[in-house]
Write a structure and sequence with these properties.
Number of helices of chain B: 5
CATH class of the largest domain in chain A: Alpha Beta
Shape of chain A: globular
Strand order of the largest sheet of chain A: 10-11-8-18-15-16-17
CATH superfamily of the largest domain in chain B: Beta-grasp domain
Bound molecules: FE2/S2 (inorganic) cluster
Helix content of chain B: 25-40%
Radius of gyration of chain A: 27 Å
CATH class of the largest domain in chain B: Alpha Beta
Oligomer: heterodimer
CATH topology of the largest domain in chain A: Aldehyde Oxidoreductase, domain 4
Distance between the termini of chain A: 51 Å
Distance between the termini of chain B: 55 Å
Strand content of chain A: 15-25%
Largest sheet of chain B: 5 strands, mixed
Structural class of chain B: alpha+beta
Largest interface: A-B, 74 and 63 residues
CATH architecture of the largest domain in chain A: 2-Layer Sandwich
CATH superfamily of the largest domain in chain A: Aldehyde oxidase/xanthine dehydrogenase, molybdopterin binding domain
Chain lengths: 737, 161
Amino acid sequence: MNATRRGFLQGLIGGGALVIGAPLLGPVRLLAQEATTFKPSLWVAIAIDGTVTIFAHRSEMGTGIRTCLPAVLADELEADLKRVKIEQALGDEAYGSQNTDGSRSVRDFFQTMREVGASARQMLEQAAAKTWGVPAGECRASLHAVHHGPSKRSLAFGALVAKAATLKAPAQEALRLKKPSEWRYIGHDFPSYDAPAIVRGEAVFGADVSLPGMKFVTVARSPVLGGSLVSHDAKATLKVQGVERVVVLKAFTAPHTFQALGGVAVVATSTWAAMQGLRALSTSWKKGPNASYDSTTFRKALLKSVSSPGKSVRQSGDAKKAIGSAAKRLSGDYTTPLLAHATMEPPCALVHVTKSGCEVWAPNQNPQGARDTVAATLGLKKEQVKVHTTLLGGGFGRKSKPDFIAEAALVSREIGAPVRVVWTREDDLRHGYYHAPAAIHCEAGLDEKGQIQGWLLRTAFSSITSTFAPGRTEPAPFELMMGVTDLPYAVEDLRCESCPAPAHVRIGWLRSVCNIFHVFGTSSFVDELANAAGVDSADFLLQALGKPRLLSLGSEVKYPNYGKSLKEYPIDIGRLRGVVEAVKKSAWGRKLPKGHGLGIAAHRSFHSYVAVVVEASVSRDGEVRVERVDLVIDLGTVVNPDRVRAQMEGSVIFGLSLALWGEITTKGGQVVQSNFHDYPVARMSQAPKTINVTLVKSDLPPGGAGEPAVPPIAPALANAIFAACGQRLRDLPLRPA
Amino acid sequence: MIPALEEVHVKLKINGELRDLSHVDPQTPLLWALRDGAGLTGPKFGCGMGLCGACTVHVDGQAARSCLLPLGQVGEREVTTIEGLSPDGSHPLQKAWVELGVAQCGYCQVGQIMSAASLLRENPKPSDDEIDAAMSGNICRCGTYGRIRAAIHLAAKEGAK
Ligand code: FES
Ligand code: FES
């Protein structure tokens, strides 16, 4: 689609009623126009034809959030979802955070959406009351109209627009939120707004937006992070039909953060020409300080790091003494490799730098962040940069790093034309922000009764903070909170330590982040303890979790708790037990064919509680098949159960991909893998035939959905493989002999 | 080194229409001719190597990976993209996809639907294993495989009516 032609541009739709970024001026302007639109807040506008437009300010990468948050608003507004238009908001802090990651869209905006909806509803009710000259308390909005019970009169929302636009919004204390029993969308399945467009091929992703005169650009980047361009030869490139020129982009200055990497850009009149031109380009690089990075050697270095004491990050009693005096002692070292996001849609961005500023269309998880990065890259004020968020063909954390947008901005400024930068799959896998490689060391004792007696947990992984502070080897509390400082087991003598680890590639967050490696280690280890104790794995897990209680970490533990207070979102062992008990009941202990095994794992992350049972079989030549997965999640209040189930199904597949195949390796500082043949992800024939998902009914505050189900998948599978064939696999990806 | 090519006019039958794609190198993969040349952005780029299926279209009714197929080799054959699968999104597969909420991010789904349509044309009642075999060239990173399978069964049932 053409960005100037079609309604994608925010400013061009909704006539003069659209006041993005000026929420406070909105009513004033609308008054002056003798409103044809009622726009009580920056989230929602109601037109006289009754169309309700709701602005989705979070990015849609597959979770359904672009529908779910507007549906919460619509519910409180008593709008008919079928008559709601959803528009994607521009990057603007008036919306609050738009950084769509951390599985927090619902947690952070559920209440806001409810209040915004209720406020607008009450204004419509009041407008009707004024029109009829009746008390507002007698007027009730229901499905796109306001009704007066006593006189049986009704007015459609559209008919109330003019009057409502003259009213003041109710005070916070005067808001009447619907009772949960009155919700018509929240808690019920409803379809995604974008589904029809998706199946018709009309949904607009990053590379589907064009501008007249737009150039297509590919970039050759240093194969090693921090390398510098020595020379390039573009003779062959310039002979490629459609290639117009090459542009040298200067390398980033440390820290790399979200800057463009730099390199040589090929500017062409079509995507294919740009790709061919890139292929024909010859470049030579000075490799720089990361040239010796070899992932095999680094894995050993990580294991070495966790072999000696690190910095204590949580401590109670005396773990060393308890383990030393235990009847049985066990230890295990677990490693996990670098991972790439491999979003189905590789990074891409359309940027147009003009004299007065810059406009961006890109699949991004954080339009404000993208705006700030582009502004810094070009030396503009952030007000001069406008960021449109298209649909994202997958995000998983990759698209909250706007380096690829900055790249397009640099080229656009240089050539004075709109630029679409296209990343190939090779670019994507070789220039990612990788999920950190890690080593986990666990040590524990068992007493005569098979109870855990003392636990030492050590972790070493390249920290995300290295992306912002080069040379940093210490993890941050937010990384340790994911599976280390929140270790849920009832062990009196516990010591958790973090051990140093450097980074040699860009390290970023990937769906579920550090929970992946920590829970792979600890949940595998619990299963090893169960087997050593000769106790059923599910029973042992429950026993290890101990009594229902709110986990107290001790005041010296730095525990960010995913950005919320422990009071609002405690670590509730009762809820964790609850999901384990539920999955145990539905899936554990069933009869299996020979060569099959069951594995169990459970974890709380992103304020949600997940337990899984995986059934796997291992063939003679070591081929693993996942036959069935049962998953129970307790995520408190649910907006759209169907989308949560979809996230659970997707998390199972994502978890299996990383458990069985996910591995980025490096040699000489360069990433070895290049495309799906050597970085495989699960295909349909490898997906389990059955995934049973159960949502625990709960009216507690909402938890996350996008990420919390990924971490327990890999350890549950490793435990199932052990049950199936007796091989304990402690390294990801899992490769039985 | 890639030799410079003469500008050529390639005529292609796309979605029942004869389209003139001027100034296109006949080596250009069909995918880019469709997306950049014909303005049909339904087919997607995912790998460029025939590994993911995001670019799947039909050539004479058969699923083909358009990222690998040079334009010059299409010849007289009829190209159908998702835009031409049904006039209004009413193909049984499109309906089943919406009905079962298959799509997550949606990026792979055009390719999935085109592969499934080609499968159903040849095999109106596929089994699970036949579906797996026909669909395993299409990656869905969001992991919607279970619902894709179910939607193909549903469409097969609807189609049989
Ligand atoms: S883009 Fe054609 S198969 Fe992946
Ligand atoms: S729905 Fe996202 S890749 Fe398939």
